[in-house]
User: What shape does this take?
Amino acid sequence: MVSLSFGEKVMHSIIIIFLIIVGAIAIAPLISVLAVSFSSRLPVELNEVTLWPKAFTLDSWSYILSRSDLWRSFAVTVCATLIGTALSLLITALTAYPLTKPEFKIRSILMIAIVITMVFKAPLIPYFLTVKAVGLYNNPMVLFVPHILTAFNLIIMRTFFLQVPVELEEAAVVEGAGYFRRLFSLVLPLSKALLATLGLFYGVAIWNQFQHPLLFVTDPDWFPLQLKIRQFITNDNELPIIGSIAELNYNSRTLRSVAIAFSIFPIIMVYPYLQKYFVKGALLGSVKG
Amino acid sequence: MFRRKTLLVMMCLVIVVGLIAACSSNSSNSSSKNATSSNGSSNTSGQTDAADKIVDIEVWNGNTGFKAVEKGSPMYNFLAELLGVGFISPYVEWNGGTDYLNALNARIAAGEMPNVFLPYNGNEAELARNGAIADLTDLLPLYAPKLWELIPEEVWNIVKANDPTGQGRIYWVPGIKSYEKTTGLIRKDWLDALGLEMPTTQEEYVNVLRAFKEQDPNGNGVADEIPTGGRENARWMDHLFNQYGIAMVEGFPDWDIYDGELTFSAVSSNMKDALAFIAQLYKEGLMDQETFLNDKATWDGKIDSNLVGNYFHWGQGAYEHLEKLELGSGVKAEITVLPVIEAPGYEGKGFITTKQLGNPEWVVSAQQDEEHLIASLKFLNEIADESKWYDIYMGVEGMHHEVVDGKKVKLPEDKSTQQNSVSPFYQWGSMEFQEQMLLDSASEENKWRYDQSVQNMKELQQYVKVIAGDGLPSSIYDGYPDIKNNTLWYEYATKIIIGTYSIDKFDEFVEKWYKSGGNVVTERAREWYAKVK
Amino acid sequence: MNKETSSKGLLSNVRRYWPLYIMSIPGIVFFIIFKFIPMGGTVIAFQEYSVFKGILHSEWVGFKNFEILFRSPDFYRIFTNTLILGFLKITIMFAVPIILALLLNEIRRAVLKKTIQTALYIPHFLSWVIIAGITFEIFSLSGIFNTIREWFGLDPVLLMQQESAFRWIYVFTGIWRDAGWGTIVYLAAISSIDAQIYEAAVIDGASRFKQMVYITLPLLLPTILVLFLLEVGNFMELGFDHVYTLLTPMTYSVGDIIDTYVYRTGIQEARYSYATAIGLFQAIIGFILVMIFNKLSNKVSGEGLW
Assistant: This one.
């Protein structure tokens, strides 16, 4: 590695310090949420908890983790995310690839149509009726099927596909490869960073979904995680709660904090594995090879 | 490479097929509305009479997070035995009513209305006009006589007068308010600590507030006291408004007689004086400077942290604050009713607003067959039976209550295990029933808190006045959602109080309010008043 | 080209390049079912839609819903606020993730890079309710902001009540929550750049800064352009939750936007026609903007969405 000049070293350090500060600020809300989740009920109600737990307790966590219906939600969401992401990536790739080929006559029209779907949103009731008509009402598949394609991800994939060097595909054509072969054996393997990115986008969208299941899933057994978590978020009822309050060491706020942390951690766990695809030089050697 | 992709695709297909297989065996369990009846009750004593058959109905009543009630579940069985009706209630997200409304509308659009449900935000009018809900006028006395008797005739008459189809029919069941719950509340122990009398005039009141601020009544050596305050949108500070004879329900301005005519209280001259007074309090620091940023949790937190001297909320809810005050600050506080203060020029004119007619609570679908219609009415009939309220309140043994020494003791609220229920005692309940519920929850050590609560509940009634706008239908706001939402009011009231606007801007507010639809709304309101009263 | 030739051209195109057409079928079907058919429901913007009557039997009112919107006394205010916040969104809030990505790219130590990246995108998963709640706390009397002011001998200020602060808080919270997440696409793009180009530049004596400006940035341009165009398409959409949770009546004059107005007057009242009409209005503006910028982009850089 070529060594940096002094000026560059200073710049470098400044950048790193800056990013660390920014990172700390970014992570502060999560710290606050965690702090509440480990605090006892009373300090939370007295608004005493900011970044550190008060009257540390594991009660909220043990309560949440002991709820089997939450774990079922978790499992449902994991399955929907895995299946949905794989399906989405596949179909997005299949749809994006032709859009990169100038010889594809309806390319421009499709692009305009796609942008239209992104800008013009369908109103709620007609959407509900359509999805119901397709048989997805109260059907677990509604957890991933409506998410198969988004215009945004599609366009990004197309943009990245366009940046694959033309010579590579031409070489494949010379060897007699058809379009399917070119997509699956050449373009996709070179697009690991892209697939990781879109996999993350789709996966997170399915993981976090809330509006869809709200309308289309009525069987509590199939509630995905976010919907389940909403049950802990009380609308502050004006009604005073009758009954022994003091016995519980948690309340809706602490439980909500646990639930939020619970739903974020899997994503935090997954990301580092995807990270390795964001390494510079993934295309190294491809031109020569 | 190609093979890996094919493998992935095949895996997907396999899983998808598996899911379809799994879900097709599960989908029969979705909440059904016109479900077939079942002979589940053990009370039938061998009779197969139609009257004893348990008919299932789907009930939507606004769930704040409790578990759904499915067929065969504990709550279902419990209510089947108690009411003779199969109570099925799915979980429908509430979210301030918006999500509930959307879900309801989606169902209506799909032709699958629930059998009995809670109307929201005035949609009962549209439902009635479209014939979607049943005309209850003749059905109630016939099939739900207990409910018919429970609600006073004057109240039924107002419901008839408010009939959106204009034919004097009854389309919904209202809640009733047999007693008022809200009042100004003050820390009597602080008054005692500072040697002050309970204030009755405004001058005395302001002096008390000043004393709270300067003389450290919570005794911690820090000047952290918040004499009084409220919450965002200028709500829950009605005690500052009601000194001026302003009709206000939980912080929302309402309709009463001003200058001889039914007028919206926010645009009355009383309001101008009130705002001027409150702005003065804010300026002097006698009000929580963050009042308009407080949500319920934040404001309650301040009350519970031994910082607030005077607030406005439910008299009977004092025990909650008393508990936290004791646990958090170690103080055994005394929270008592603040009398309605005499403001200069408004002596004797102040009052705590109340209404007798509550919000619409139940409507019955007209899109069901006779069997289910009768079952719906039976449901309403049985929950109106006061003798059953205690059992309904106590709920299912092991889930909502446990039996200790032969006595039922209510378990703490637990949304993960407890199923949703109905609360007829809140919809139609009397003060006596409420008192009984409160004292029931008391133990020896904490009885003092509940005593204070009951005391407050009873004492505030002397200040209560029923306003002229009692029973005013929300249809007067049709076409003017921002008038209904009080958007303009929030903006001007908060800005005037915090001082961004001077009090003179009030006249601008009144003018704008009338111009943006207030005049039409007022006209409609006065028409209604002339007709009904 | 007359019609006969072009349809013949299409048919022969299909015959010759049939794999491409086969590939796009699932996607097209999906869009038709889940996007275009429901989009047909937008006609309710021209009706007085009632859930009881359905689309077929609801009354047609033409442009009445739009008239109501334009005549509303608030229209000027909400429209201007939407434009201003939208402008801030496609400038400042759009640029920050790019800069962050470039800076992140400079970190060599993998562990540090991974950690900071992870930290940066975490707020994206917290709902606006939470972020707004924390924002209110920060600017409360006992919050960090006023505590620091005290250190400097200044009086406390309740920023969340100030009209002048709202737009900056909007930008700040938007960056706080979503900038980190926004870096992901750019980092992916950067990682696809051939390392050899950098090596060649280093040999030529280019500083890291020069590398950033002359290699990374230009190669990132297609991605930036596309994302910009997509942002522009959603210009009028400022994130309802974002603004709604930060809004107070005291800041209505600068913060009340079209979306919050629709929520109050359309959605909460279940006035679906009105809400749809306003959504249509916003979408049309967004679409026109996309068309304009797409043309510009094509002219300037040869790249565009179509």
Observations:
- The first helix of chain B runs from residue 2 to 26.
- Residues 73 and 419 of chain B are 9 Å apart (CA to CA).
- The longest strand of chain B covers residues 357-364.
- Residues 1-8, 20-51 of chain B have pLDDT under 50 and may be disordered.
